[in-house]
Amino acid sequence: MEIVSLWVIAFFSLCIFSYLYRNNPFYKFAIHVILGLMVGYMFLQQVTIGLEQLVVSPILEELGQPSPDAPDILIQRVLPFLVASLIFTIFVPERRWLSRIPIGLLLGYGMGYMLTKSLEADVFKQLNATLTQSITAISGDSIFRSRWPAWGQFLPGLSALTVIGLTIFYRFRMQHPTIRTIIYIALSLFICSLADSIMILVGVLTVLSYFFFSFERRGLVEEVSRVGLVFMMVYFGAVFGNTVLTRVQIFIGQVDFLVFEWLGGTWQALFGG
Description:
Radius of gyration: 31 Å
Structural class: mainly alpha
Strand content: under 5%
Helix content: over 70%
Distance between the termini: 19 Å
Largest sheet: none
């Protein structure tokens, strides 16, 4: 049975790889089989979860053990199911307009819900985190606490104010090489952390300015939006490179399967070597 599974997987893998040569019937066959299995599995899951567990089972449970809330529960279960069933009227030309009701409800609720969640997660929380990190780097908690927790417990309170204080103390109170070395190290670490925070802050603000369409971008606003475009291109390039690397890793893994597991397993099963 294991050798049969290996051959089935290898057959479909080779059918998919055959597209590298050109579009052919083997590739189409593999694509249709995979899509058919995916659609059938998703349909079965939706029927099992959506229909049986959310509609049929609660209704049968309420009918078997009636409760004062049974009418409300039945309405909550049956009414959405009937409205959702209207989507199948798309196959009836005379009643096709009824399918717009569940589609409109689904799109309206989905867009409203996702819009609020997207604004909260992708805009407000990101701005809050960016501004908090920038302010903290300038006048807040220790750099070491946020970046090197193991060392932060030994060097607490090293922030911008601490660096300024040490600099003033060195400049006016004490001319000592050790103090000077400590200040240089603290300044270097602080500048690195501050540059990182400023880079993040500038990237967020300039990218947001690129999507301001309420007024015409001119002068300074146009230059700022161009900087945001540069940040976006760098991000898209990194994402594309990561995507290509992931696909190459999948390809290498599948080739490794064909060479070592399929051919090697078949050779071992046939010749026992």
